[in-house]
Hints:
Blueprint: H1 2-19, H2 24-30, H3 34-45, H4 57-74, E1 81-84, E2 87-90, E3 93-96
Antiparallel strand pairs: 1-2, 2-3
Helix pairs in contact: 1-2, 1-3
Amino acid sequence: MVVQEGYKQRQKAIEQLEERGLTADEASEEARSYFYFICQLTNQFITMSHNGQDPTPMQWIFKSRLYGFKIRYTTTAEGCIQWIGDNVLYQQIQFSMS
């Protein structure tokens, strides 16, 4: 999505330069590069927030993911080993203590 938006922004910049009287080739040369627009958007939407800036969508995704990992790795799960007398059952495998 960031690359697509960067593409659209550059095309819009080229159109604005053409409206000012430049030819298509001149406008293409004069407009900022795709790299410039994509870097701006990357810094705005994909990086983590620092220095008191507002959080980005990626910040929310990473925080949600970390919260899910915390729950997953600190919450005990239901046991999957069963004992029937001296036999141990684990999934589809059965062992006897003898």
